[in-house]
Specification:
Blueprint lengths: L8 E4 L5 H12 L3 E4 L4 H14 L5 E3 L7 H11 L4 E4 L14 H29 L2 E8 L10 H20 L5 E8 L7 H8 L6 H12 L11 H12 L10 E4 L10
Parallel strand pairs: 1-2, 1-4, 2-3, 4-5, 5-6, 6-7
Bound molecules: NADP nicotinamide-adenine-dinucleotide phosphate (NAP).
The site of NADP nicotinamide-adenine-dinucleotide phosphate (NAP) has 27 residues, from helix 1 and strand 5.
Length: 264
Amino acid sequence: MLIELTGRTALVTGSTQGIGLAIATTLADAGARVAVNGRAGDTVASVIAALREEHADRDLVAAPGDVTDVAGADAVLAATGDIDILVNNLGIFGAMPALDITDDDWRRYFDVNVLAAVRLIRSALPGMKERGWGRVLNIASDSAVVIPAEMIHYGMSKTALLAVSRGFAKDAAGTGVTVNSVLAGPTHTGGVEDFVYELVDRSLPWDEAQREFMRLHRPQSLLQRLIEPEEIANMVAYLSSPLASATTGAAVRVDGGYIDSIVP
Ligand SMILES: NC(=O)c1ccc[n+]([C@@H]2O[C@H](COP(=O)([O-])OP(=O)(O)OC[C@H]3O[C@@H](n4cnc5c(N)ncnc54)[C@H](OP(=O)(O)O)[C@@H]3O)[C@@H](O)[C@H]2O)c1
């Protein structure tokens, strides 16, 4: 199977690092013109410069802006132009005891992890429908299904994203536009190494440390190691491609078997 995205424009929110960066890179390597997004213009510019240094022919556009506010989202949309592939990757997470989560925390998680994605879908979907082709991918999490006791607010926002994906897939029914969510499992992104070494013996080399971490703290994982961002990006690239034309309204798992369920 050849994943070929030449001629398509993709916007990947929160793509200056982590899973978003891997997605932006993979889509660009499949031929898409990719809008790279983060809050600061200079960070976005240096990420684009680094990506071009690796491969000069990557077609990248800078789309800096805070997509959680209306003006920021408008600036990002204007920099991107017509969107064929929208990847709502931006998401915040953090641990908090359930009873300490304030009204403001609940609202902030909804605003950043759900409403920002909805706003971009609302802007991009009409054009996709008109052109008869489009892909919307919302990056959810195993926490959408296995609600962590220490991150109920995060779990709530990711469960909501599954509902949003399913609902907009219905809105796009029969138009050539697909809308799906991707449930990412525990992934090796920036900051995770520090987090792991807080919980296991610091003298262990990384490979052993992450296996120990998974054994002790994420025993449900069938993969028994953290997922690499590129492994999430591979699924997103497939779902973004014409090859995935019959997958819509789905929640697709790249969770290393973390969610103990036969049905996705
Ligand atoms: N990491 C995991 O283990 C894991 C597991 C399951 C699901 N996920 C989900 O995967 C997604 C990505 O996670 P990650 O760990 O790769 O994230 P991350 O490393 O924290 O990266 C976040 C990205 O978002 C950008 N960003 C933050 N606030 C922004 C805003 N208001 N507007 C625009 N960009 C903004 C950051 O760029 P700047 O700082 O340059 O603005 C950065 O590029 C999230 O939705 C997360 O919930 C992650």
